[in-house]
Amino acid sequence: MHLFEGDQGECLKADIISTVEFNHTGELLATGDKGGRVVIFQREQESKNQPHRRGEYNVYSTFQSHEPEFDYLKSLEIEEKINKIRWLPQQNAAYFLLSTNDKTVKLWKVSERGRRPEGYNLKDDDGRIRDPSTITMLRVPVLQPMDLMVEATPRRVFSNAHTYHINSISVNSDYETYMSADDLRINLWNLEITNRSFNIVDIKPANMEELTEVITAAEFHPNQCNTFVYSSSKGTIRLCDMRAAALCDKHSKFFEEPEDPSNRSFFSEIISSISDVKFSHSGRYMMTRDYLTVKVWDLNMESRPLETYQVHDYLRSKLCSLYENDCIFDKFECVWNGSDSVIMTGSYNNFFRMFDRNTKRDVTLEASRENSKPRAILKPRKVCVGGKRRKDEISVDSLDFSKKILHSAWHPTENIIAVAATNNLYIFQDKVN
């Protein structure tokens, strides 16, 4: 494993990582931060004399994706923070990705330049226009090799379509369209058209005082281009079919787990809000994350989840203090491994949890500087509640709630994971020989 560190000591707010995403091959890994920057890491190619270096990721390109803005009509500052990054499947030598802040989605092209043209007729090699009267012969321009440059250029800017903050973007499997979701609406865009989008979901009530829920996440099905899901702050998931109607105000499936009355408390509604929803690679299942659990749903069964995994059940008794320090509103993401057999999600104290769906075994691991030496093996961690504490356990009362793993990503085919811990990015992989 290896670690990409932010500044030592006090962490700058702008350096806090806000999204992590592998591309479709896993060769590239992009992170976005609160300062509006995108950093792309590229995987090292295997060399004969250093076979163990395969799998190391090094910085490939860094660019400023979004700048802070000010909406003069509403007297609102628009943060530059990158909320989500989504890669487009690679069609040619260049890479394309979508990045979004609260209001504006941008399509970026990331390409390499290894040669430059020389021998212009009408201008000098340094770019100055030549006096036509001094040109006595015709030159044939040639391409000369130069140091490799990686350029990031904005190709499209999709703006002015969201009144509320964008929380999700998702590329459709037709690779022509994508959707962007905010608190109350979901818009469908064509990747070629920036000045027009189609509103496909609108849950805004006529009277805003009647508002009872907001959209928290949305995603397209991995291979059915007409199907998408969105989750709500009420703990429900709606599956919609765009073939049924232009405005998907009637869902075709509605997933909700009935609440156990014995567990009802003041915090029930807050902790049932879904912070992330992800289809499995196969498209048969979807996974949702709420504050305390991860649930796996079969798309053919709406009444209850297939599997429920407790992420940090020991926090159930601490909800009052977590409400007071606002941690109860943290939005944790969840990810599948390449074969849909293991799921991963984050917790506090820089812990992250993995659940094996076949063996039902689970493990808690920690992303910390102590573990960040190359080839260090991660030791499972255990949290104890009350009573006697064994020496390798950590007490629930000494957990650090300012350290949290909200964003993570899993390589599409291999056991390589990327975990964002505040301003540090950790990359762990299975033992390599």
TrEMBL record:
Keywords: Repeat, WD repeat. One of its GO terms (molecular function) is protein phosphatase regulator activity. One of its GO terms (cellular component) is protein phosphatase type 2A complex. The keyword Repressor does not apply. PP2A consists of a common heterodimeric core enzyme, composed of a 36 kDa catalytic subunit (subunit C) and a 65 kDa constant regulatory subunit (PR65 or subunit A), that associates with a variety of regulatory subunits. Belongs to the phosphatase 2A regulatory subunit B family. This is Serine/threonine-protein phosphatase 2A 55 kDa regulatory subunit B. It comes from Polypterus senegalus (Senegal bichir). The gene is Ppp2r2b.
